[in-house]
Amino acid sequence: MSDSTLPPDWGALYRRYCERLLSALTRRGIPASERRDVLHEALVTLMGNHAAGKLGYVHFGGLAKQECRHAASQHHRRSRRTDAVEYEDSPQLGSESAHETQTQIRRLEAAAGSWPERERQVFHRRFVLNETAPVIAQELKISVQHVRNLCCMLRARCRSLLDETP
Question: What separation in angstroms does the CA of 15 have from each of 27, 61, 96?
Fold first, then answer.
């Protein structure tokens, strides 16, 4: 039997890479209370793929890190957790109807054309696409706090623009 067909010693691999993988999940924004669950989910997926013959060679370090990245992404997608700050980031602009909201969004998008690129990106993702701050931060590769600060500044700018009647 060649080395690539031998079943891996999953316990030894886990012990060897556990701390690195948990640290990778920390960087992906997974809360401490949920890291081990996400790590186990990723490892079970790897074990299942290996058992099904989908993995010819298990280079565990890189493959496990990639699977953890995917599991973290899935975790964020499933949970769509909202905390108190996220409620403040609500995209509602204070309008009475959906039509008014769409009109306000169009006005703000037109005004956003002169804003810096990052502010336009955050505005569009948060207030038009209704994405959460953690998702925006992950996509734009900036901190969640930076996204929240930008949202706060953008809300103030939007309010002042909406107060100016056309």
Answer: 20, 12, 57
